[in-house]
């Protein structure tokens, strides 16, 4: 196995890429270059209703325009559902998942009673509606083919974590923008009984991302600050699934003039629009405040 660092860019093809994606992809690509590492592209298309083939084609075109190269073959998550199911089967066997048949409306109604109970993203915490369903009721609902999600039994998962590491929190290494490491200690319990397998697709982002980072040998996860808090859940799953621990760099986010995170429908920051307007990759780097790579001639004559 190669000892070279492995980095990746992992977009979801449910819309067009914008400047925020360019920032993320370029930060990962530049770090891979700096470390002499490999750079992978992973298409996170688990949401088969929202992801579209044309967005995938556009991702390839936009990244190539930015001067980014990546290794082939590109991993497409929608082709690997059985791999994620193997991981969820294992968690199920350990007694760490339970089926939740509750509808969105039922969950919404129950969470209204606990307005202060929110996860690190500010979303209502799952109030445990179907946590203790009797076996017989589960069997009846399964026989009726009622759709269900699989949720993490967080308290049991933390017990399992303690059994493995001796502690009830997780740790990870966060690199700042200069590459200086800081050890972070964080509590995954704040996520409550998170969905590990969604109702509509045989995995969740959290499960697929840790399984793929593990099997692709990703050593450095570069992604936006919006996913910083999710890292506690990822480290928990990695530890229980026996997957290696990467280091993390959660980079700054680009915001619009109202201070909101850029959205996929924001036309003025869309990479296709910027390309059509004749803007080139160096101008994009300049606009993003990223270093301009030296040309071969400059490298030869410092
Ligand atoms: N697919 C995720 C997104 O587009 C990124 C996942 C990650 O980098 O961990 O937001």
- Outline, from the CA principal axes? globular
Enter the CATH topology name: Rossmann fold
Which distinct ligands sit in these coordinates? glutamic acid
For the residues shown, what is the average pLDDT?
A: 94
Q: Report the biggest beta sheet as strand number plus sense, adding barrel if it closes.
A: 3 strands, parallel
Proportion of β residues? Answer: 5-15%
Quantity of strands, as a count: 10
* Distance linking N and C termini: 35 Å
The top-level CATH class is Alpha Beta
Question: If you had to describe this structure to a student in words, what would you say it looks like?
Answer:
With 302 residues, the protein is α/β, with parallel strands linked by helices. It has one domain (6-300): Rossmann fold (3-Layer(aba) Sandwich). Helix content is 38%, strand content 15%. The chain has 11 helices and 10 strands. The protein has helices at residues 19-35, 53-65, 81-93, 104-111, 135-143, 154-165, 205-215, 230-241, 271-276, 281-288, 296-300, and strands at residues 6-9, 38-43, 75-76, 97-100, 149-152, 170-175, 181-186, 195-197, 220-224, 247-251. Strands 1-2-3 form a 3-stranded parallel beta sheet, with helices on one face. The model has no long low-confidence stretch (mean pLDDT 94). Bound molecules: glutamic acid. The site of glutamic acid has 7 residues, from loops. The site of glutamic acid (GLU) has 7 residues, from loops.
